[in-house]
Amino acid sequence: MSCLFTSEDVRANQRRTLVTLGRYRRLSDHVSAALTFLECNLLLRSPLEIVHLRARPAADWHGTPAVSALYAHLHRVARDHDVPPRLITSLPAAPIGHLANLWMAGLTLPRWPSTEDGLTALAGALDEARQVFAKEIADAATPEEALATAVDIARSGYAVCAVDASRSSNYFLDGLAGRERPSGGPVLPVLCLGGRLGATAGYGSLDDTDRTAALVDAGYRVETVEIGVGFEATMFAAMERAWHGIQEHPTVLVLKMPRALSLPPALSTRLSHEADAPADRSPHNADVPESRLSREEATVELRNWMDRFAARELIDENGRPHRDITALCATNPLRG
Question: What's this model's pTM, rounded to 2 decimal places?
């Protein structure tokens, strides 16, 4: 009797999975950006105009590509291994990223269905949605909270904790490495860096060689992945190695985000409908020069930047994510 599945079948299935992961991540990035910057026309059915913009962005964009990547690949891990990990984040923009992925997976029903109208309604009720899903969006404001939450979750399951590669990440990673391994499941820390994430302090201030050496000295096996060409295959392999090896040896995933995924510098200051509105000079944006673009120029910049996600290729006529994307959403990584 011939084998039911050939090696070519396996390779073809893996290729389809990698394509779906990339499509999922692109849509997650787009929806997150739309919720952050737009009030209407969130799926860009028509050319972006000033009237579509929020008076102020709903959140900081930094960290969003990491959230999108983690959701895509944790969905895949949960599907293939039937053990859903629980995601904890301590990153800028994570709440918006969580809501975008909950919407994609149909988990914002019945108030905000996974349709274009549902997404528009969600964009108009972000504060309410954050409250509704407050218990599920397991964000940690401090490294102490991240460490405590991750260890608590690991008593009964598999925890994945994404942290900014700043000085606080040293506390989290060193503290996790120094603890006795939980009796339940493992904790996979994800060190996110790139753009303004962890650029000047902690592990984020080191070059790749020194960072890897420091993490190895702390007791970790290190997997480093950069979002870019070939990312899905590299991340797939890294997550598989982490999944199979983490029970025997603590592992850290270093997730690097290239400058190309950052918001264009001219848009890093907050967009406003008011011509004389002051730029956002909050501590997080203190190092960003004030935008010299007019409102019209800023709108064109934002349109060109969002067009790179090509969201119209990923949704149907009702604004629902295509079936290959929703089929990946077998579980909710916020619930585990």
Answer: 0.86
